[in-house]
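Severity: low
Component: inverse-folding endpoint
Summary: output formatting inconsistent between runs
Steps to reproduce: submit the following structure tokens with default settings.
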């Protein structure tokens, strides 16, 4: 980016960071090791969200998948159910696979969710690291990048909530088309763009004016600092008002570090090796798991350990939001509920204490 003469932004209070939870609705096992039916997994996710809201968690997001190891394929319906049983936290997706969906229908669904939740809806838009939705809905994977770019452009225009004229390659054109319902926000539906870590993706978020949610799922978060810097430099160069930065990473919380790691490891291993076998990755090892827990982006441990890691990442990247993906693989519902409880009662206040110091 070129240099700018813009005055530096005033320092922000990192202790005001928003802290959220995220799940893909992983199909879990019961206490006896038997597989939990998809329907029960969905009901359990609702209970986890209700607990999170009661404990003051700022946001709760659900991933979209179309495969047998995840129960959530229509997150907006589950979020609407959660909206009726919660009062304060933001409700969103992490992510909605925009590339294999229709931007107009996505916008309509989230504008509707925003209405029933009294303004608490948000959508994190992504290209999708899982690609099952493309053949399922009739899209060609060869168009992977083009689909996302085109549909993101249209979604960005829809947020004006005025008449939209638009044309593209992968859907019919719009001419002075109004989209309903309208939201009660001046900027339209609250939105983020999920970014895995390429400069082009970072710049695209600024160009369309939708904040970036960095998915940091491995390695030291410090390696993403150049992307955070590029994000802010691009805002200055394009004359954008300051845009928030979010971070999403996996983890698990228990009473002690050893307990948390021992609880997570077998489920983490099974989940990672299944996906790895599909993608040609070698099997993971306990040593790799321990390394990621010690110095990478796996936030697993006691409340103090997890809080310290989150605070470090927030401070390093000057993040405005941190979402913990608390469900990994087949971990039982009761264990997930305890992780949610510890996040709300111990991790969140400790993160804010550390950041205020």
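Observed output (run 2 of 3):
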């Amino acid at each position: 980016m070129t240099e700018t003469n813009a005055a530096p932004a005033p320092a922000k209070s990192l202790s005001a960071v928003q802290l959220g939870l995220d799940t893909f609705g992983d199909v879990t096992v019961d206490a006896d090791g038997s597989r939990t039916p998809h329907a029960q997994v969905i009901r359990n996710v609702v209970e986890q969200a209700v607990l999170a809201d009661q404990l003051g968690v700022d946001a709760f997001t659900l991933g979209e998948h179309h495969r047998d190891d995840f129960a959530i394929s229509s997150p907006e319906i589950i979020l609407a159910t959660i909206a009726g049983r919660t009062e304060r936290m933001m409700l969103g997706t992490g992510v909605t696979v925009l590339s294999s969906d229709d931007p107009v229908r996505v916008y309509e669904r989230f504008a509707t969710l925003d209405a029933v939740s009294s303004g608490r809806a948000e959508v994190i838009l992504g290209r999708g690291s899982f690609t099952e939705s493309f053949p399922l809905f009739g899209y060609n994977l060869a168009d992977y990048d083009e689909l996302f770019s085109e549909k993101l452009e249209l979604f960005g225009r829809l947020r004006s909530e005025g008449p939209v004229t638009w044309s593209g390659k992968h859907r019919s054109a719009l001419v002075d088309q109004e989209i309903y319902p309208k939201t009660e926000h001046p900027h339209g539906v609250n939105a983020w763009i999920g970014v895995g870590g390429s400069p082009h993706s970072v710049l695209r978020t600024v160009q369309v004016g939708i904040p970036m949610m960095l998915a940091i799922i491995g390695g030291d978060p410090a390696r993403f600092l150049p992307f955070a810097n590029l994000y802010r430099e691009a805002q200055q160069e394009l004359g954008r008002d300051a845009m928030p930065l979010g971070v999403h990473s996996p983890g698990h919380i228990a009473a002690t570090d050893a307990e948390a790691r021992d609880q997570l490891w077998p489920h983490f291993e099974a989940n990672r090796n299944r996906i790895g076998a599909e993608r040609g990755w070698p099997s993971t090892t306990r040593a790799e798991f321990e390394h990621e827990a010690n110095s990478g982006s796996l936030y697993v441990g006691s409340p103090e350990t997890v809080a310290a890691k989150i605070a470090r990442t927030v401070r390093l990247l000057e993040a405005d939001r941190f979402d913990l993906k608390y469900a990994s693989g087949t971990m039982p519902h009761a264990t997930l509920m305890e992780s949610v409880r510890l996040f709300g009662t111990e991790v969140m206040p400790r993160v804010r204490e550390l950041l205020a110091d």
